[in-house]
Amino acid sequence: MVREVEQKQPSADNSRGVPDEQRLMSHILLGYEKAVRPVKNASTPVIVKMGLTLTQIFDMDEKNQVLVTNVWLDQEWHDEFLQWQARDFANISVLRVPCDKLWLPDIVLYNNAAEYTDGVMSANAMVRSDGNVFWPVPTKLQSSCKVDVTYFHLMTRYIIDPCRKMRKKKRISEKERKKEIER
């Protein structure tokens, strides 16, 4: 999954002496209520597209049956209240907005093994002038997952025993080593 966003440099000069990006941020957030669903008609559903990119398997705790992973959780939706005419703001068509200023989908991992507030990092959302919002969030997920531990004790034995045998071989005397080499 590619995370590439066009960034425009705000023009330092404009009629009000305020950078265009700052002016745009003030414009779209003026009167914006993040607790309200981002639709003008209450019967309109908010469609959230999601993607998940696994970046690391951090831990697999077989005993407690918890899988810890680092992922990018990509979410995308349309916010009818975050639209503007790019030509009015130095042709800025994409704006990075702190996620704590926006309505966010309340989507959580159903089989979460941690607190629901754990693991989600604050990340900027990329808002396009047409109201499309893309929010890529680096997240640590702790999910409970059933692990068949029927043969777990055997796996442990095979993993640990070879190490013990190797240590024993290192402890043989010099005389015994010479005998092994001569054979």
Automatic annotation (TrEMBL):
Domain Neurotransmitter-gated ion-channel ligand-binding: 21-152
Key words, A-Z: Cell membrane, Ion channel, Ion transport, Ligand-gated ion channel, Membrane, Receptor, Synapse, Transmembrane, Transport
Domain of life of the organism encoding this protein: Eukaryota
A GO MF term: transmembrane signaling receptor activity
Gene Ontology CC: postsynaptic membrane
Subcellular location: Synaptic cell membrane
Membrane topology: Multi-pass membrane protein
Pfam families: Neur_chan_LBD
UniProt-listed InterPro entries: Neur_chan_lig-bd (IPR006202), Neur_chan_lig-bd_sf (IPR036734), Neur_channel (IPR006201), Nicotinic_acetylcholine_rcpt (IPR002394)
Protein name, UniProt field: Neurotransmitter-gated ion-channel ligand-binding domain-containing protein
